[in-house]
Amino acid sequence: MFNNFSIIFFRLQADCGNYDLRKGCTKMFDPICGTDDVLYSNECLLCSQNLQRHTNVRIKYRGKCQNPSPRSNPAQN
Question: What is residue 2's predicted lDDT score, i.e. its pLDDT?
């Protein structure tokens, strides 16, 4: 049985195994706010950025960031 903290923590990890990052990501807009406060257009793009930059940005929440980083630009993600 999960408590509320476990469920929230579990949802923060992007499921990058769902994507073939070598083939690229779709342009579908399904916004993700990363733990770096950057808006990613979708989960695949968050995973792709982690792979390229050797980072471990997680999902802060689904949707647009309330206080986005200046690096946020969904057109470039």
Answer: 47
CATH topology for the 4-62 domain: Wheat Germ Agglutinin (Isolectin 2); domain 1 (3.30.60)
* Between 77 and 37, residue with greater pLDDT: 37
Order across the sheet with 32-34: list the strands. Answer: 39-40, 32-34, 59-62
Residue closest to 49 by CA, chosen among 10, 66, 69, 8: 69
- What does the pLDDT look like over 47-70, one tens digit per residue? 999 999 999 999 999 999 988 887
Tokens of 42: 């979708």
Annotated domain spans of the chain: 4-62
With H, G, I as helix, E, B as strand and everything else as coil, classify residue 24: coil
Q: What is the C-alpha separation between 63 and 19, in angstroms, rounded? A: 20
